[in-house]
Amino acid sequence: MVSQQLSASIVKKFIPARQSSSRKGDNGTVLVVGGSYIYHGAPILSSIAALRCGTDLVYTSVPKINVSATRSISPNLIVLPLVDQKLTKGAVRKLLGVVPRNLDSATIGMGLAIQEKNSLLLLVKSLLDRDVRLSLDASALIPEVLPLLPDKNVVVTPHAGEFKRLFGDTPSNSKKERIELVEKMAKKHCVTVLLKGPTDIISDGKKTFLYTKKIPAMTVGGTGDVLSGLTAGMLAKNRDTLQSAAAATFINGLAGKAVQKKFGLHMTSMDLLDEIPNVMKPFDKIV
């Protein structure tokens, strides 16, 4: 399988034009499910990233203990409290009863505390049954979820450690071997895989894109949460999971390069959020 380096000209084709006559909701409705007693910031970063990439509406579902903190960060987020402190079956059922029926995409897992695996599986299966496109990250990346994903519109976004937990194989330090392993797992499980690292590798088992970052400042916590939000935001407008994941990776990297140029090795993930609109302007199309 031939892999291709991502470029602006390639990614421009992956970001749909916006209709000048469009109304609220036409440009994407996203659900973000994450957070815990310790990690309150992760779903906030994902949610704002989804908004910053042009999504119309973002619903942020966090444990009730995190609700006030989440609401205080931004008035742009529509916060849906999970009724329990962790993801439980009861919390999932109540959430499914209040989320909009016209959801386009969702991202699940960033900072999320899960009480029992079956609660995550219930959430994933229920959303897929509603034809919601999914981006799965962090604690949502468990092997038990794999049987639900084949031939659905799903992107998984692991780093090397999460990749091993999800698929059972550890990515090599060899770039060639990493690419081959990502392609193998994407093909085997009929899912789009975005393996994060010095070179992000994105494959659906048929086609593979690479993005070599060389942005050491992006080791700061939260950049993966921003990527998850961007992926969900792209999925809300483009049903093609490979294109959406590739576009999210590229935009995240462009923002990272711009912020590193500005702050050196002293950036935070909040800085990334502020830069997303600037790097996305050249990709904007209105028809």
Describe the structure.
There is one protein chain. The protein has 287 residues and is α/β, with parallel strands linked by helices. It has helices at 8-12, 42-52, 67-73, 89-98, 117-129, 160-167, 175-189, 223-235, 241-263, 269-280; strands at residues 3-5, 29-33, 57-63, 78-82, 105-108, 133-136, 154-156, 192-195, 199-203, 208-212. The chain is globular, with a radius of gyration of 17 Å. The mean pLDDT is 97. The protein has a single domain, classed as Ribokinase (UDP-N-acetylmuramoyl-L-alanine:D-glutamate ligase, 3-Layer(aba) Sandwich). It has a 10-stranded mixed β-sheet with strand order 1-10-9-8-7-6-5-2-3-4, with helices on both faces. It starts with a strand and ends in a 7-residue tail after the last helix. The chain is 41% helix and 16% strand.
Concise summary:
This protein is an alpha/beta fold and 287 residues long.
Assign the CATH topology.
Answer: UDP-N-acetylmuramoyl-L-alanine:D-glutamate ligase
Helical residues, percent: 40-55%
Give me the CATH superfamily.
Ribokinase
Question: What composes the largest sheet?
Answer: 10 strands, mixed
What's the rounded overall pLDDT mean?
Answer: 97
Summarize this structure as a short list of keywords or feature phrases.
10 strands; UDP-N-acetylmuramoyl-L-alanine:D-glutamate ligase; single chain; 10 helices; alpha/beta; 41% helix; 287 residues
How is the secondary structure organized here?
Layout (H helix, E strand, L loop, with lengths): L2 E3 L2 H5 L16 E5 L8 H11 L4 E7 L3 H7 L4 E5 L6 H10 L6 E4 L8 H13 L3 E4 L17 E3 L3 H8 L7 H15 L2 E4 L3 E5 L4 E5 L10 H13 L5 H23 L5 H12 L7
Helix pairs in contact: 2-8, 2-10, 4-5, 8-9, 9-10
